[in-house]
Amino acid sequence: MLKIFNSLSRKIEEFVPINHGKVGMYACGPTVYDFPHIGHGRKYVNDDVLRRVLEVVEGYQVTHVQNITDVGHLVSDADEGEDKLEKGAEMTGKTVWQVAEQFMDYFLKEMDSLNILRPNVQCKATDNIPEQIGLIQKIMENGYAYDTPEAVYFEVTKFADYGQLFGQSLEDKLVGVRGEVVTENSKKNPADFALWFKRVGKFAQHAMHWESPWGDGFPGWHIECSAMSMKYLGEQIDIHTGGEDHLSIHHPNEIAQSEAATGKRPFVKYWFHSLFLAVDGKKMSKSLGNVYKVADVVEKGFSPMALRYYYLSAHYRKQMNFSWEGMEGVSNSYKKLKKEFLALRLEGGQDKNIFGPSADESLTGRGKFFRDEFVNAVEDDMNMSAAIAVARAVLKDEKLKDFEKRRLVENFDRVFGLKLSERDEIPADIPAEVMEMVNKREEMRKSKQWAESDALRKEIEDKGYKVSDFFDGVTVEKI
Ligand code: AMP
Ligand code: ZN
């Protein structure tokens, strides 16, 4: 049985979904006003691995919903500061709508490149404005919100637990709020948060706006996640994910407004938070010039799968530190793992499922031992580095046959998502002349002209390239 840390109880708990056999999982998506970075990659790979564990190992039918925040919201999580999308528009000379579209496309491509399964539903905040308005109406009817000339606010003191959620005190939050630049404000309590902003005062020119019972304006940021998770997954959901930055404001606000609207508790049964990724021990920031995209990692010659491997080596509840030296090291271990895997003899049938009640039970006793070790590792609060160690042990084992090794590791990779069985494309920077020699040598190998093919390998090496043979093809790399 899967055991997972629930940030709400701050304990490791056994995972039991609300409805038998099914899991509803909602992930806070990106704000699409800038390029995603490798910190986003970490968070969404962790979500993806959780989803894969639930589907592949635990056998659940998962509905994974992720939002796209394309309504401008503020640079800080609280209600003050600059609008992120408008800032993005200013930077690029485009409209806020174009900015959102462009960065959403970019985000999807980056996530695809990390082999993250696309969520079953990806919903934009701007496509769900009536749902957000409807939810705010319910909250108001239930007496948890008040209307002011500048905004509709949620009244946090009406929600008894607000101050204790995720172990954060209301006092801590108030200190945070006070530290920000407060301009106009008709809040009853500084910790109250906006459900609907009116297009007045500093927002008089706000580019995105809609009609509502409270006048022309736009939704506060937090309400979109409550509205969309309920729309697609119901009023109570199994898992909600996010980065650690959401523990203090965004997620307590989501809980407060959702439970205030429906009266049902808990809004979310398990909260799953990923810790942040830092670069060279420092927070990523534009001023330090250390905000890297997945594309920057690829440009330096690393495979996105090596980056994914880097993510898997750090537990989701620990800070992860990225460095170029670290990247070099994990890239080498990833290549080694893949090479060992691809060198195994292919015999067919190795892709048969080995997990859960529908597992094909033809594994040997030793095979079952390794399978169980893998399952124990992933079920132990997703200990992925231990799970990778099991894959390595399988490949090194002297008693298992190639066939069974391949079958085990191919199944493990349904959780890792490291594309171990996909032969890498030949890198684009191999000169045509060398490629011609490689192809010629392949033909010789096929017609068993071993001496000639060996001579050609030597010639290719003299040109500075190394060819490695596998049962079903070759790879070429620069020496
Ligand atoms: P944002 O677009 O800033 O709202 O971020 C989208 C998601 O990525 C949120 O769940 C954040 O918590 C998460 N995130 C942002 N920066 C990092 C980082 N450096 N490391 C890990 N996760 C992050
Ligand atoms: Zn959210």
TrEMBL record:
tRNA synthetases class I catalytic domain span: 15-329
Residue sites binding ATP per the record: 286
EC number: 6.1.1.16
GO biological process, one term: cysteinyl-tRNA aminoacylation
GO molecular function terms listed in the Swiss-Prot or TrEMBL record: ATP binding; cysteine-tRNA ligase activity; zinc ion binding
Superkingdom field: Bacteria
Catalytic activity: tRNA(Cys) + L-cysteine + ATP = L-cysteinyl-tRNA(Cys) + AMP + diphosphate
GO CC term, one of those recorded: cytosol
PANTHER family for this protein: CYSTEINE--TRNA LIGASE, CYTOPLASMIC, CYSTEINYL-TRNA SYNTHETASE
Family label: Belongs to the class-I aminoacyl-tRNA synthetase family.
Lineage: Bacteria, Candidatus Collieribacteriota
Organism annotation: Candidatus Collierbacteria bacterium GW2011_GWB2_45_17
Keywords: Aminoacyl-tRNA synthetase, ATP-binding, Cytoplasm, Ligase, Metal-binding, Nucleotide-binding, Protein biosynthesis, Zinc
CC cofactor note: Binds 1 zinc ion per subunit.
Identification of the protein by name: Cysteine--tRNA ligase
Cofactor section: Zn(2+)
